[in-house]
Write a structure and sequence with these properties.
By secondary structure, the protein is an alpha/beta fold. The chain folds into 3 domains: 94 residues, Elongation Factor Tu (Ef-tu), domain 3; 109 residues, Rossmann fold; 94 residues, Ubiquitin-like (UB roll) (Roll), CATH 3.10.20. It contains 7 helices and 17 strands. A 5-stranded parallel beta sheet has the order 10-9-8-11-12, with helices on both faces. Strands 14-13-17-15-16 form a 5-stranded mixed beta sheet. Strands 5-2-1-6 form a 4-stranded antiparallel beta sheet, with helices on one face. Helix 2 runs parallel beside helix 3. The structure holds FE2/S2 (inorganic) cluster. The site of FE2/S2 (inorganic) cluster has 14 residues, from loops.
């Protein structure tokens, strides 16, 4: 597991429900907070079945005094990280890292389109505020299942005015990616954070438009698939093993618990270190990573064990995969 960063004990200073499923935590720090740029995140240690595990949450907005802010969506079928976060009370302690950034905002682009889906608003919110402060040409699309899930709405409207569209699934609204992307100048940059289906749709539209791949920048959250999580079976003939992966447990954790030692790093479907060979599938692989291309996902020859799952059956795996053979 990665993380050589300095860690500290933060104290939960306040808790605010932004919507029925999104809760914001303001964290007071034992020392002056390090400044951070839009797109930064914290690694936070949560307790899952008594075991410490890292989770990554984007820092929300700009630094405020001696505190950091994060927001967490309660995901009932998650591995338990969001449930742990939602169990925290004001005054509780939280082991956090210093800010880190894998989703850097380039301030030199001539034009920007920001796209947020659901809780993907957390890094995009700070980008919108920072670009608006610089009077940069920026448009934004913000999709969510319901209108009440559009958190930070008044702050976003104050920053972007008419330049933001709020799209709610339950109102029958759809994000018009084609229209938004085709209206951009040739060197515009797009920043997107949201579930995998949204990211796939943006990537497809972007590639079809013939624009430079480097101008599309994204971050996702690795528990968002095409299908609802369900239990599935796993066979590993090389180890003579057969076991089940329940909802709320990742394939990676199930493999390691079964004694099939599997490497990992990001646990977000990004680095490819946990990739394992697929021998056969009964059902459908729900690829939840951003590591493989769309074509590789169709072939179903390998699976990112940290985030991807199977629906409608199970999978036979060969544990002999070596990441340096990618
Ligand atoms: S640990 Fe990085 S993709 Fe799975």
């Amino acid at each position: 597991m990665r993380n050589n960063q300095r860690r500290m004990q933060a104290i939960v200073e306040s808790i605010r429900d932004l919507s029925p499923t999104i809760r914001e935590f303001t964290l007071a720090l034992p020392e002056a907070p390090l400044p951070y740029r839009p797109g930064s995140h914290l690694s936070v240690i949560v307790q899952i079945n008594g075991r410490p595990e890292p989770r990554f949450y984007s820092l929300v907005g700009s630094p405020m005094g001696d505190t950091y802010r994060i927001a967490v969506k309660l995901a009932p079928d998650s591995r338990g990280g969001s449930r742990y976060m939602w169990s925290l009370q004001v005054g509780g302690r939280l082991d956090i890292s210093e800010p880190n950034n894998h989703f850097e905002l380039d301030f030199n682009a001539p034009e920007y389109l920001l796209i947020a889906g659901g809780i993907g608003i957390t890094p995009i919110f700070g980008m919108a505020q920072a670009l608006s402060r610089r009077n940069a040409p920026v448009q934004m699309l913000y999709g969510s299942r319901t209108a009440e899930e559009h958190v930070y709405r008044s702050e976003l409207e104050a920053s972007l005015g008419q330049r933001i569209d709020f799209i709610a699934d339950d109102a029958g609204q759809k994000m018009d990616l084609q229209d938004a992307i085709s209206g951009l100048g040739p060197n515009a940059q797009v920043y997107v954070c949201g579930p995998i289906p949204l990211l796939d749709a943006v990537r497809r539209t972007w590639m079809e438009s013939g624009r430079p791949p480097a101008n599309l920048r994204f971050e996702t959250f690795g528990n968002s698939g095409q299908y609802a999580a369900e239990k599935f079976w796993v066979k590993v003939p090389r180890h003579d093993l057969e076991f089940e992966v329940p909802v709320g447990v990742t394939l990676l954790d199930a493999l390691n618990q079964a004694g099939v030692e599997t490497l990992y790093d990001c646990k977000r479907g990004e680095c490819g270190l946990c990739v394992i060979n697929v021998v056969s599938v009964d059902g459908t692989v729900d690829h939840r990573d951003v590591f493989f291309s769309a074509a590789q996902k169709t072939q179903n020859k390998r699976i990112c064990a940290c985030v991807s799952r199977v629906v409608g059956g199970g999978v036979v795996l060969d544990s002999d995969y070596r990441p340096d053979a990618i």
